[in-house]
Amino acid sequence: MDETAVELPRVLQQMWGIQGRARPGPKPAFHISDIGRAAIKLADAGGLAAVSMSKVAAELGFTTMSLYRYVDTKDDLYVVMIDYAFGSPPEPDPEQGWRDGITAWAQAFHDGLRQHRWVLEIPVTEPPLSPNQLAWMESALRAFDGTPLTPQDRLSSMLLVNIYVWGAVQLTSNMLTDEAAQVADRLYTQRLTMLADPDHFPAIAATLRQPEAPDEFGVEFDADEFAFGLNTVLDGIQSLIDRRAT
After folding, report:
1. Which CATH number is associated with domain 89-174+221-245?
2. Could you give the CA distance from residue 90 to residue 107 in angstroms, rounded to a whole number?
3. Alpha-carbon span 62 to 27, nearest angstrom
């Protein structure tokens, strides 16, 4: 096998503590984690647009050119940011069933995305290879221990939960405050009631007319909505488990 084809990019070598080819120049003064945390601080305060190589370098107190001793491109910087933004995943509890385990994983992932919403703006161009990201993958797959799911079933189930959580947070990424979401909900409900007449939109109208219909309908994706969607996804995985067990 051609070793140049499998050699890890330099940023991953640093994150994994692997000794790669030495670069000329002075010994590095920072760890790659320092760069990641400085960039995360900027992104948390001002969004992804606030992150640049020069601003990260200034945050750390050294020149932009010095930063390139650690990361070759801004995409490399994003890899570091994502890894340190999420940190370590929840440890699977052997006493829990698969459903409780993957629910805890999904909630932790959800909380991490909500805390660092700028992650949603980073294009996903390849599967994860950084330490914490692989730890998150391992944690989710281990949640299915004790089930009859095949390794591919587990991977597909993990991806399904991942996609659901990502989409749920993406849906609410612009809802910055509970008050703003409530105002938007009320206005949306009023307009929807005006426009969705029973002749043209009978299903929507029926939803609005039901006794348990909320006063504020459909815009805010709150904790109850998140739990409903997640449980529905997990019901589907349970169906697969039941089929595999027969």
Report:
1. 1.10.357.10
2. 10
3. 14
- Could you give the 3-state DSSP secondary structure of residue 24? coil
Cβ-proximal residues to 154 (8 Å cutoff; 6+ apart), any chain: 141, 144, 147
Domain ranges of the chain: 3-85, 89-174+221-245, 178-209
Query: What is the residue whose two structure tokens read 């305060």?
Result: 45
Q: What is the pLDDT of residues 173-221, one digit of tens each?
A: 765 455 666 777 788 888 988 998 999 999 988 888 766 555 555 555 6
Separation CA 159–CA 182 (nearest Å) = 31
In angstroms, the CA 171 to CA 120 distance is 11
What is the DSSP-derived secondary structure letter of residue 153?
H
* Mean pLDDT computed over 156-174: 91
Angle, helix 202-209 to helix 178-195, in steps of 10 degrees: 120
**What is the separation, in whole angstroms, between the first and last Cα of the chain?**
42
The amino acid sitting at 127 is P
User: What would the DSSP string read from start to end of 16-47?
Assistant: HT---PPPSSSPP-S-HHHHHHHHHHHHHHH-
pTM: 0.83
CATH fold label, 3-85: Arc Repressor Mutant, subunit A (1.10.10)
Could you identify the residue written with the tokens 């805390």?
A: 115
Dihedral sign of CA atoms 46, 51, 55, 60 in order: positive
C-alpha to C-alpha distance for 182 and 217, rounded to whole angstroms? 9
